[in-house]
Amino acid sequence: MRLLPKQDPVPELLVGNETSDDAGVYQLTDTIALIQTVDFFTPIVDDPYMFGQIAAANSLSDVYAMGGEPKTVLNIVGYPIKKLGADMLADILRGAADKVKEAGAVTVGGHSIDDQEPKFGLSVTGFVHPEKVWKNIGAMPGDALVLTKSIGVGILTTAIKRCAASPEQEQLVTDTMAMLNKTAAETLMAFQPHAVTDITGFGLLGHSNEMAHGSGVSFEITFATVPMLPGALELAKNGVVPGGSKNNHKWLENDVDYHDLKLEEQLVLCDAVTSGGLLIAIPEDQAEQYVKEMHEKGIRDTAIIGKVTEKQEKAIIVKK
């Protein structure tokens, strides 16, 4: 972001690249604002259909994190057609199309290039009321912190690549990544969140750090309450940790007080996530009801993981 050229202020641009938010928001009318986002990456699972599903869910997530409804998508494809053939690409596109349909959006086209390494993702456009945009700043002291999906995704996908994951773990992490944040966002619309973001490459603590700094507050997170994928902690203890998670941990070393957490526990909290859940700062008196409604809708990983405090010496304080 810091390398992008500066541009003159535009009154209609409600959220631009000046912050670390999840998408741009441009006001069209008094009641409609346009949300725009784009994301793509290399395969993280072997199944091309599931890769398409995960890539689509990940791209759509940014619209949900802004409080919006996805409307249209464009496919972004880099693919070695001569080396891998058309059938695999068709499966990727089919997986994405099914997930876009589940979101209630429509695929309107896309662009592809011949590339030596497969890459896939979406450019997504959504709508939101200009006065109902969720941002990743605005968390207030006294808010509860809610997380809607388990973390440990990066660790388990690394375990898959190293043949260190069980079939059950592989299925669980795949299903977790492919799950839309649609229910989480739609349920949240009946509440009054102060700040929202989705957990992706910077991990739980990286995105918490952005939210805390942007809001001028600190976060106190209780490790025992953070939902984690089964086996993630043990894998981290055995050194099955992706480079991105280690980089996150180093990047955050001056912003986090881990108290007496073990290294593997710290690394799971910093784990680089693909298509993670929503992190929500919400008034404490609303948090339990939101979690209750999410559980009733089958999203049982949703949990209160901490609270927002006045600004302290560290942006994030983690306790057992």
Strand order of the largest sheet: 8-11-7-12-9-13-10
Q: How far from one another are the termini?
A: 35 Å
Radius of gyration: 19 Å
Tell me roughly what share of residues is in helical segments: 25-40%
Total helix count?
A: 11
Q: Beta-sheet strand percentage? A: 25-35%
- Rounded mean pLDDT score: 96
Number of strand elements: 13
What are the low-pLDDT stretches, counting only 5+ consecutive residues below 50?
none
* Structural class by SSE content: alpha+beta
- Give the ordered list of helices and strands: EEEHEHHEEEHHHEHEHHEHEHEE
What is the approximate shape? Answer: globular
Largest sheet: 7 strands, mixed
Explain how this protein is built:
The chain is α+β, with helices and mostly antiparallel strands and 320 residues long. Helices cover 36% and strands 25% of the residues. The protein contains eleven helices and 13 strands. The chain has helices at residues 48-65, 81-84, 86-103, 153-161, 167-178, 182-188, 203-215, 232-237, 243-251, 263-269, 284-296; strands at residues 13-15, 24-27, 33-41, 69-79, 106-114, 119-128, 143-147, 195-198, 217-222, 256-257, 278-283, 303-310, 316-319. The strands form two sheets. The chain has a seven-stranded mixed sheet with strand order 8-11-7-12-9-13-10, with helices on both faces. Strands 1-2-3-6-4-5 form a six-stranded mixed sheet, covered by helices on one side. β2 (24-27) and β3 (33-41) form a beta hairpin. α1 (48-65) runs parallel beside α3 (86-103) and α4 packs across α5 (167-178). The longest helix has 18 residues, at 48-65. The chain is globular, with a radius of gyration of 19 Å. 48% of the residues are buried. The mean pLDDT is 96.
